[in-house]
Amino acid sequence: MKCQEAIILISGKLDGELIQKQEQELDLHMQTCEVCRKEYDDLLKLREVTSNMRFTDLPDRYWAGYWNDIYNRLERGIGWIFVSIGAIIILAFGAWEFFDKFLLDTNNPLLLRFGVGAGIIGLIFLLISVLREKLFARKHERYKEVER
Ligand SMILES: [Zn+2]
User: Fold this and answer.
1) What letters, b where the CB count within 10 A reaches 16 and e where it falls short, cover 87-124?
2) Phi and psi dihedrals of 43, rounded to 5?
3) What is the pLDDT of residues 85-139, one digit of tens each?
4) Which residues have a beta carbon within 5 Å of ligand 1, which is an ion?
5) Which distant-in-sequence residues (6+ apart) come within 8 Å of 47 by Cβ?
6) Burial class for 63, CB neighbours closer than 10 Å (0-12, 13-18, 19+)
7) How many CA atoms lie within 13 A of 71 on its CB side?
8) What is the mean pLDDT of the chain?
9) pTM metric for this prediction
10) Ligand 1 centre from 48 Cα, in Å?
């Protein structure tokens, strides 16, 4: 067998397409021909490396990043939900206590009750305004991430 024929058979062997007779002839040639044996080894190694890259390394890295991203978003979402629930409970409790103990207590002067009530309503509006600004800023940041 000539080396030119052997080279053609080598790619066939790597693809598993050789009939038994061809494979035996090629093996016989490679036992005596250093050049073709080295060619076969190199191609075999190259094929192992590329198939490893395609089927293990890349998807692993890809999926790890993907799940990390999902997890981060989920974590932040859950965090916001708990903070919101906590804030609502505290505000509701505070408001109830305030109406019950202070505004409905006729022992306090009317003007003082009016002043404190107005101040607290103002604070609530400021809080809502800040929260809305924060939420808007987060949406805007997310949009910038997509743009990049
Ligand atoms: Zn050869």
Assistant:
1) eeeeeeeeeeeeeeeeeeeeeeeeeeeeeeeeeeeeee
2) -65, -40
3) 888 889 888 888 887 887 777 787 888 888 888 888 898 888 888 877 777 766 6
4) 3, 6, 33, 36
5) 14
6) exposed
7) 6
8) 82
9) 0.37
10) 22
- Residue 93 alpha carbon to ligand 1 centre in Å: 88
Instruction: Read off the DSSP letter of residue 1.
Output: -
Main-chain phi, psi angles of 125, to 5 degrees: -60, -40
What SS3 class is residue 18?
coil
Cα(52) to ligand 1 centroid in Å equals 28
**Cα–Cα distance, 35 to 7 (Å, whole number):** 10
The rounded Å distance from CA 23 to ligand 1 centre is 14
Residue 53 CA to ligand 1 center (angstroms) comes to 30
Whole-number Å distance, alpha carbon 20 to ligand 1 midpoint, is: 19
Q: How confident is the model at residue 66 (pLDDT cuts 50, 70, 90)?
A: confident
What CA–CA distances, in Å, run from 38 to 25, 75, 100?
17, 53, 91
